[in-house]
Amino acid sequence: MNILMIDDDMELCELLQRFLAGEGFSVQCIHHGAQGLALALAQSFDMILLDVMMPGKNGMDVLRELREHSQVPVMMLTARGEEMDRIIGLELGADDYLPKPFNPRELAARMRAILRRQPQAVEEAEPTGDIRVGSLRWLLKSRRVMTVHGEGQTFELTLTTTEYALLTCLIQQADAVVSKQQAGNAALGRNPGPFDRSLDVHIASLRKKLRDASCASGVEAPSIQTIRGVGWMLVSGR
What is the mean pLDDT of residues 180-197? Predict the structure, then answer.
């Protein structure tokens, strides 16, 4: 797995580069945001580890520009206690975040959880049909989600790896409640704690993308309802 780490902490980069090599990851380190962004757009990486606080172009600026061109999985590395940085990063399209200082083993586990969810070509033995929920269509073989309107016209949703995993979890249980624990395990690879707002931010992003799809297609897309204290439900509208 090829990983790009964009972080101005050279000592941390060197430490993680050695550790992650032992975990089967090949890590390339860049210490400046602008250079890291240029490399991320020029080459293909399986994941990007992105620090928030950097001189010049910071992590938020890098992520914002990156998401205009790529949906490569991104793990944000934030200062402990900077809750707003985490929320903004997720809103901009980060797949997950990890506050510094952190245990390298936890980082590796989080990385594997994200990479397991990444849409890839499926094995032929897996089901290859499509699943429809209202105007929403999930193409299992190509791992794409789109809305269908008019005479077969479609509008494809641009989703991050985490958003894709979360939405497909909701699609598989359409019109039924998906608990926070179920959603967390499917989208984050873990059961989020009581003060972890990651899922809420990803749900908000999905709602916006579904609304945008409705506006673009003129056909109402399924909506995500909050079941207070329990989780969420994808309502097909049928």
Answer: 88
pTM of the complete model: 0.78
**Domain 130-235 top-level CATH class:** mainly alpha
Domain ranges of the chain: 2-117, 130-235
Does the structure show a pLDDT above 50 at 164? yes
Superfamily designation of domain 2-117? Response regulator (3.40.50.2300)
Judge whether residue 60 has pLDDT over 90: yes
pLDDT at 125: 36
pLDDT (0 to 100) of residue 189: 87
HEC-encoded secondary structure of the chain: CEEEEECCCHHHHHHHHHHHHHCCCEEEEECCHHHHHHHHHHCCCCEEEEECCCCCCCHHHHHHHHCCCCCCCEEEEEECCCHHHHHHHHHCCCCEEEEECCCHHHHHHHHHHHHHHCCCCCCCCCCCCEEEECCEEEECCCCEEEEEECCCEEEECCCCHHHHHHHHHHHHCCCCEEEHHHHHHHHCCCCCCCCCCHHHHHHHHHHHHHHHHHHHHCCCCCEEEEECCCEEEEECCC
